[in-house]
Amino acid sequence: MKKYLFLLLFFISCIGFSQNNHIVKTEDGRRVWLKADFTWEYIDAEVPKENTAKEPIKKDGCKLADGFTEPELDNKIQSQLKKGRATIDHVKAKVAKDYDCKVEDVVLLSFSEQKAKAVYHFCANGTKVTYKRNGHAIIESGKFF
What we know:
flat; 3-stranded antiparallel sheet; 3 helices
């Protein structure tokens, strides 16, 4: 009896896992969620704007005070993050790559950091941006993929 019950539960769980949802990108750049019940919906409500020309760099976009210094991070946490390449230097490099600027142009404004997760607020190219770290994964706040 136990054998039949186990097989029944196994097949029911297989059916549940076999119904996958997929996310695809359309030709105009919007993401669409294809559901297992043959319905779909847009994840991105707006069509993304194409950047044909680079905007000029705004020097005072973040309005930093004269003599502003970056806040100090906990050295103990930063040393633990070295193995996973998730230190503040790695985060700044990712921000610089995403916003097409030099690492020196990325300024840390504020942060909330723990060993497992963190939130960093930066000024990159005159734009205020927020990045999150969960474990060793670094992603811009508000982005899904």
